[in-house]
Every structure is written in C-alpha cells, then in structure tokens.
Design brief:
The chain is an all-alpha fold. It is built from 24 helices and two strands.
C-alpha cells in the first residue's frame, strides 16, 4: 500500500500516482507553484484516485476557479466510496471549504484531527492568516490557532511544514522570540519553503527589525524567483519595511515591479488585498499620483470580487471604492448589511463599521472617522489576516486622530504598538500625539 509523507495510507495502486500526489501536497503546504500540475499528473496515472481530485479542487479554489473547484470536489466525492474512511472525511472537509461551509468544515476538521492528527492538509485549513480560524470572525483566532498547533506538536516533530506554522502561530499570539526560533528551525530544513520565508518576514516585522527583514527578503526573493505564489506577498512585506523607513518612493517601486495586479500568477485574494492595502499605506505616507494604480486595482477587484462574500476582500474593497468612486462602496455596504442580517458576515457589524470609517477618512471627515473607528479597534482582530495586515486600519485611525486634533484618542494605541515592537513611524506619531494635547 502507498502512503503519503505523513504515513497515512493512500487508496491507489499506482506508485507514480502516489508520488505525484505527495509532491502536490508538499507544494501546496510550501506555497509553491506546480501543485495543480502535480495533482493532474496523479490523476492521469490513476483517474480513480479520490484524494488527488480533492487536492486539485483545493488548488482551483485558491485561484478562485470556482466552477472547476466544485467539479473536482464532486468527482472526489463520487470516487470516495472506494476510499478509506480517513480519505472520505478528508474529501468531505475540503469540499465543505470549497462550498463556503466554513463552520461545518471547521468542526469536522477539529474532529477529524482527533483521529488522524497527521492529516496535514486538513490541519493546514485551520491555520494561516487566511485559514478557517482567521476568517471565522472569532476574536480569539490567534489563540485558537496556537492551541491546536501546540496540541499536535508531538505528532509532527521536526516536520518542516509544521514547524513553520507552529512558529508563525506563536509569533502572531505574541511570543515572538520563541516563534522566530521555531520558524528558523523549519526554515533551515527547507529554505525554499515560501511559507517559512513568510513566517520569518512576520517574525522580523513583529520584532521591528527592518534592517534584517530587508536583508532577508532581498536575498530570498531573487533566489526563489517565480517559484512561489507568495512571491508578491513577500515583496509586499519588503515594501512595508520601506514605508516604515520613510522611503515611499522605494515602496512604490517595489509595488510596480512585483505587486501590481497585471499578469501576476498569485491567488486573487492575495493580489487584491496586497495591492489595495499597499496603495492605501502609500497614500497615508503622503504619496500622490496613484490614481491609475487605484483604477487598475478597482478593475481587478470587479473581475474577482464583484459582490460581497469574502469579507477580507470586502473590507479592502472599501479602500479601493473610497478612493475611486463612492457609489461602489455604497452598494458593497448594502450587500454586507444583507449578509449580516442573514448571519453570513463572519466578523459581524465591525466589518461594516471599518468600511464606513475608511469612507469618512477618504472624504476628509477625520472627526467622523475617529468617531466610527475608535470603538472598532478592539474588534479589528475579527476580520482575520495577520497583525501586519490589520495595522492598516490602526494607522488610519491614528492619522485621523492626529488630523482631527484628537491625539489623546490615539495615544494608548500607539503606546501599545510601541510596547509590542520598536517603530520609527509610531515614535513620530507618539510625539505628534503628545504635541496635539491641549495644555493643562
């Protein structure tokens, strides 16, 4: 009998199909290009290989090829009758994710891992900045991700993929020193793993180490050019360092060379959120002349996210719409409100409020932006993503406070951020906030 890399039996008699499947899984876990081709090769060797079909479906889903993803998931379900109980559950969980049944998939994945803790693909669904926990709307998703990673640490040992996500989970939960050390262990085992490079970028960001972060990413990106679908997002991290250091021109150059949407072979959710968020950050940093870039991102979003549905895309849509056309934002807010009324907006009304705050800021009504955003700062975590991604809304709130002459409102948030990590921008904002306080 064939087995995957984690020792789990595979229902195929073809050694070649099994090897291609293992390659596809590893490429998916490492965020490397070629996973779809590997699963296709496994299916060509054994057309009845059910888990290869669901692996292919997952790649289609990541690329927002919805009809193809659903078709492959349906084929996997059809073939699952001849598969093992573990494989049948595996297929059903991933199919549920593809069908947008996140709560069902989460509960099923947690139960499945009690019986099959080394089913890495299922565990991976729960983890990451875009995983089921992160997009659940829970305020404790960082803790939930860390808890399940620690629960299964003995099951994985020194596995290169698992160490990466255990380390990243610790970093996001606030234990940056331990998180970085674990991430570095995983990175050493497989340096080409883009997930490890990504986790390293986050650890260096959380430590406020721009010099080392720039050196690390500037070496990793060209050495692994065109190998990973996280390439654009890692360039985004490099651009954040440039903005932090006051080099908006350098950040825009990185955007134009590596991040802007035209022809990028990356998952659409990454492209849309990276482009919209970086342009907004550049605007906050005082960069002008971005109008054509905003129009390009708006056109891209209309192609992949024309209606409300993926809430992380929706809150980024607000950045684009507020900058290009207010009418689109009004429509999107109405759609989000309808989803909220139907219990389908995971973060709840806070996501709508964040969009409204962005609209007020873009309109120059900084006092209104402060009024809307202030009570939402503790709720910001509910939209998911990482600390680095969510800081955009904190930055907007801080600047709104400063421009509205309400530095006191921003003082505690800035202090909390500086307590977490050093930041040249936050130090400058802290001084500006202090100067904006009324005299006693």
């Amino acid at each position: 009998m064939n087995h995957d890399r984690y020792g789990l039996p595979l229902t195929t008699t073809s050694d070649r199909a099994a090897a291609c499947y293992v390659d596809g899984v590893d490429r998916t876990l490492a965020a490397l290009h070629g996973a779809g081709a590997a699963f296709d090769a496994a299916i060509a060797e054994d057309p009845d290989f059910a888990v290869a079909h669901i692996g292919r479906a997952r790649v289609h889903q990541l690329n927002m090829e919805g009809s193809d993803a659903r078709a492959e998931a349906a084929k996997a379900r059809q073939l699952a009758a001849a598969a093992s109980p573990r494989e049948r559950q595996h297929i059903e969980i991933i199919a549920s994710v593809i069908e947008g049944q996140a709560r069902k998939a989460t509960a099923a994945a947690e139960q499945h891992l009690e019986d099959y803790p080394r089913d890495a693909q299922v565990l991976s669904l729960l983890l990451g900045a875009f995983g089921l926990y992160a997009f659940s709307g829970r305020a404790d998703h960082d803790a939930a991700r860390l808890a399940i990673s620690e629960r299964h640490a003995r099951d994985y040992g020194d596995d290169w993929w698992f160490l990466t996500y255990l380390g990243w989970s610790k970093t996001e939960a606030g234990d940056v020193v331990t998180g970085r050390a674990i991430t570095e262990r995983g990175y050493t085992l497989k340096p080409e793993n883009a997930g490890a490079a990504h986790a390293m970028a986050h650890a260096l960001f959380e430590q406020g180490d721009g010099t080392e972060g720039r050196a690390f990413l500037s070496a990793w990106l060209p050495a692994n050019d065109r190998t990973s679908f996280l390439q654009g997002h890692l360039a985004w991290h490099l651009a954040l360092i440039a903005i932090e250091e006051g080099d908006a021109d350098g950040a825009l150059d990185i955007y134009e060379r590596h991040i802007k949407p035209a022809g990028r072979p990356y998952p659409p959710l990454n492209i849309y959120t990276d482009t919209a968020s970086l342009l907004w950050r550049l605007s906050l940093a005082g960069k002008t002349g971005l109008e054509q870039h905003w129009k390009d991102v708006a056109a891209y979003g209309e192609g992949y996210f024309p209606k409300a549905g993926v809430h992380f895309a929706d809150v980024h849509h607000a950045l684009v719409a507020a900058t290009t056309t207010g009418g689109a934002l009004k429509t999107r807010l109405a759609e989000m409100e309808a989803r909220q009324a139907g219990g389908k907006l995971a973060p709840g009304p806070s996501a709508i409020g964040l969009c409204q705050g962005i609209a007020a800021f873009a309109a120059g009504d900084h006092g209104e932006a402060v009024r809307i955003l202030a009570p939402l700062m503790p709720e910001l975590v509910r939209i998911g993503g990482s600390h680095a991604q969510r800081e955009l809304w904190e930055d907007t709130f801080i600047l709104a406070c400063l421009r509205a002459g309400q530095g006191r409102q921003a003082r505690d948030l800035i202090s909390d951020r500086l307590h977490r990590r050093p930041s040249r921008r936050d130090l400058a904002w802290s001084k500006e906030a202090a100067l904006s306080q009324p005299s006693p």
